[in-house]
Amino acid sequence: MGGGATKHAKEPAKDVGDDEEFNPIHPDAKEEGGNSMSQHQSDKLKRKSMQINEAYEKADQKEMSIHVATLRACPKAKVAAPTVKKANYSAPVRQSGWLSWATPSGSIKRYYELVGTYLIRYSDEKATKGTAIFPTFAHGIEAIVEGAQDVSKEFIADMENRGSSFYLYTPTRTMTLYASNLDDQKAWLAAVKDAMGEAFSADEVKAKEGAQAAMRPLLLDQATIQFKRMNVILSNLRAAGFVAEQDKVKSKKKGYLEFQRVEFEDEQFYADLLTDEKPEEAQFSKMYCVLRSDQTIVYGATEHEAKSDPEGIISLNHLHVVLDTDTIEKTGKMVFSLVTPLRTFVMKAAHQVALEEWLRAIIKVTAKLDDQGNTLAALNELSAIEAVAEVDLPMVLDDDSGIEAYEHWVETSTKERPGIQTIFACWKLAKEYKDAHEYEDDGPSHADHMKKLETSMLTTYLGGDGLPEDISKEVQDEFKKAVSDGQPPPMGALRAACLAKLHEKTYADFKVTDGYKAYVEEAKGGGQAEPIPMDARRLLIYTPNDPAALKKRLQKMTHAKTKLKSVGKRDDGEKAYEAWTFLKHKEDKVKSASIGRDHKQDVAVDDDRKVSREHGRIDCTEDGRVIFMDLGSSHGSKVNGKSVAGRVSLAVGDVIKVGKTKILFTIIPAGQEEPIR
Q: Of 72, 298, 449, 632, which is the most buried if we count CB atoms within 10 A?
């Protein structure tokens, strides 16, 4: 699906009105005393609705998609928006109070008012501006278990304990909200029902009630499964690790994914209606995710938290994966949604290869489920997308070739802008300090070198007429004070300030140059290395920082193929060692070797916190090629100094860098004993 176009379903999306304009607020009809939704917001919501419905159409089972679409559908009639001022609404306040909801980063509590037909969220009772959402349906926990049979007493008790919660449907998502008690929950449900009676026709309300009744078996199934897993997992994980009722639950894939804040879409779609101050929170936040053999994904802020005390669990039963193809094609950001009957999670992977690997892992884990969802179809769709390379100035300056291209442009095109050249020179010195700090050995000579760099920064750029005035003086003053006090200076903050200013002042001009375009093409991984002869042995070699420590780690890494090899003596007379890993290959099958800190990896590297537990993988293909791919690692990978944002075909002599470890890829030709160096 190239060219940035999104295919629409043949039938109009269920939550778009017959007039093809988003309801309840029509972009072309601004109500007096209120605000209309912008055309951009309307088109964006329509497009997303069509994407979701199209994804459901591709699945074998359409039942859930039809019911969800009906519950989220907006009224065909126009609905006036309330005025912005809290103290002077043009519609009555039907209900108000505190409500909570669960998010990937914990529970959030906010003050709500149901004004007319809109639910408005405030930071607290005193706030005068809030964010509005439009309720399209609501029901309580009792609607799930009503008439249910063959469910345990414990499950019913658990549902009753959560009796103050209720499900609220909106055009963008389904929310689970928690009232302070059961009476408040009933009051909120009654208020929403009254609001719906005003906004929707009797036939529309009847259709929604029918959809909710039809959804009951799916919701009950999902809630029952989650109850069993929560009851087993959350109690036993804390005490005994990954233990289910009788079978050991295994980790099938793990790593960081980014979760979108639940409020973000509301802030975007309703921003022109009612809005808080501009949110300072990021759209996405990182969560460590573990895909498990029991068809769940558990997540937490860290790996330890995800395993021992997860913040949440995603059940993969009845799962549908929806790709945000428009964002992927136009920006290269791998945004997708995991849609379940109970919740929708909007997420982002590091790059396309990382997302593909997650989808493949989900397909394997859910293979035995009756309803496997549409994950395979989503993977095939993703493979066909021609996403642009997501490149910004920090990414350019993270590559040796990118630095070279940018430096050439600075030298030749900014002669009349000396401030730019000064900022770039300061950034280069700060980067030299960073590289020396991370990759040089400790010792007197190293300490002297670091001190010289600090002194050079002070005398050259932080004194007199050094940096331009628009570079943060606060950062400069903190640097001077730290050096004066004998403390490590905030070189990273200074480097970031310079980079931000360079991006602001130069990136728009630089990205239209031939040098930039050549770099982007190269960054896409264009070009293929020659196939490796099938009779040659493929080999990875690196020099471990501490051979003794690596030897101990290898004793615990039962899957590792890495071996320590003595290669003579060092200058001090001690034995010198290299870590060798031979890569398996076959003519009729892809053979893979994984790289990372986890004890299950095939290639053992130094115990470096900048190496992810599942960092990268090397595939030896049937046609003799050797492919390296980064699996969405936290700190990234490089091949020959270039950042890897996908797959890279390796040639003999290429150097892979993961964390501080530089790994040489080479071969031992047939009939020879020593590798090509």
A: 298
